[in-house]
Amino acid sequence: MTRTLRADAERSVRAILEAAEQVLSLDPGASMEQIGDAAGVARTTVHRRFANRQALIDALAVSASQQLAEAVEDGRPDTAPPLVALYRVTANVLKTKNAWKFTLGNRRTETSAAASIWERINTRCMELLARAQREGLLDAAEDLEWTRQVYYALMSEALQRATAGPADTDALAELVVHTLLYGAGRRTQ
User: Fold this and answer.
1) Average pLDDT of 114-134?
2) Which domain holds residue 79?
C-alpha cells in the first residue's frame, strides 16, 4: 500500500528532486547535505524522504522518466496529425531532457521502475512512427525500429547542440524531424 504524502511533504520531495538534478549535474559526487542546502531543506529532511543516496537517485530516475512520458503524451501522438505530433513530441522531449540532463543522461540512474516507464515511452514512439508510416509520412518499406533508433540519436545530437549555448527548442525539434524525414539531401523547397 502506497502512502500519500501531505502537500508540504510532496513539495519538499519535489524541491529535493529538482535540487538534486541541478547539484548532481554540476557535481555527480555531491553529498546529500549539499542537495539539501540547494533545496532549502535540512539534511535530515533529505534523509527522512530518501533513506540513502541510491534511494534519491532511484526517485530521480522515476520522476524524470515519468516527466518524459508526460512530455510524449502532451504531444498528442494519437490524435494530432502525425507530422504535427512528431514535432510536438520532439520539442516536448527535448525540453524535458534538457531539464533533466543528469538523470536522463546517466545510465547509473536506471531502475526497474524507470525501465518500465521507458518501455512505455518506446512503445508510444513506435506507435507514432507506425501511424506516420501508415499515413505516408514515412516510407512503407522503412524499418521502424531503425527509424526509432535514428530518431533518438538525432535528439541526442540536438541536446548536445543545446548544451553549447541557449537553443530554441522548437528550431531544434524542426531540425530533428526534418533530418529524420528527409535526411541531409538537397532541399527542394
Assistant:
1) 94
2) 63-182
